[in-house]
Amino acid sequence: MLPREELMLSDPIRIADATNNPRFHPGDEVVLSEGPHKYVHGTFLRLKEDVEWAAIKEANGAISSHPVEWMSTYTGPLSYIAPQKEERKSDFMRKLGSIITLAVVSAALVYAAKRFPLTAASIVPAAKGSVEIGTDGNGNTEVKLKVEHLANPTSLSPSQANYVVWLQAKDSGPENEGDLKVNGKLEGTFQTVTPRKNFELFVTGENGATVNSPSGPEVLRTSVSR
């Protein structure tokens, strides 16, 4: 039996329906109504190769990928404010009752997490970092990337504007997961979620955060497997 992600990618009827009758179009304002990043809103960019996932540009400029089923049309901040006072007591009790469960789940994920070192290219010899993966409640792979001593992309030769994180599964093209920002201490972190279990993760310097394929110099890479 094919793995879930390969089964989804091999369903031409579902792919055609999602492509010809999209729920959202580029430029639509959306908000995440489910998942670990609930209430984050941004601009819909495009469907991913797995058409059940899409990329959005968040209000802070970061580009991230999420399941389309988690997205809703964004109608303004008043529609997504915290619950009103009359709802807060019961909401507090629900949250309180879930704290122990969340703690147990978090502890389990810590034990289940795997870490993969990043290999730096010769153009950034001092750079180092790692990728830590875990599993969320839906069976997707949580990816957490951390880098240190990574030169600003403008310091590369030729100079670049952004660092872009790419995931590439076997027998498929690389997918833009978003912009890796480096602070003044030459440190950076990045998080995303993917249905993939085995893939290459690499970082390139690019002259734009929304490019569809890598064209700039590669600076970091690792192979990930669950």
Describe the overall structure.
It is built from three helices and 14 strands. It has three domains: 75 residues, Roll (SH3 type barrels), CATH 2.30.30; 28 residues; 112 residues, Immunoglobulin-like (Sandwich). The strands form three sheets. Strands 4-3-2-1-5 form a five-stranded antiparallel β-sheet, with no helix packed on it. The chain is α+β, with helices and mostly antiparallel strands and 226 residues long.
Number of helices: 3
Overall body shape = globular
In percent terms, what proportion of residues is strand? 35-45%
Within the CATH hierarchy, at the fold level, what is the topology of the largest domain?
A: Immunoglobulin-like
The ordered H/E elements are: HHEEEEEHEEEEEEEEE
CATH class of the largest domain: Mainly Beta
CATH architecture of the largest domain: Sandwich
CATH superfamily of the largest domain: Superoxide dismutase, copper/zinc binding domain
List how many beta strands DSSP finds: 14
Strand neighbour order, sheet with most strands: 4-3-2-1-5
Whole-number count of domains: 3
The percent of residues in helical segments reads 10-25%
Which class best fits the helix and strand makeup?
alpha+beta
Question: Which descriptors apply to this entry?
Answer:
226 residues; SH3 type barrels; five-stranded antiparallel beta sheet; 37% strand; globular; disordered N terminus
Summarize the entry for a quick read:
The chain is α+β, with helices and mostly antiparallel strands and about 230 residues long.
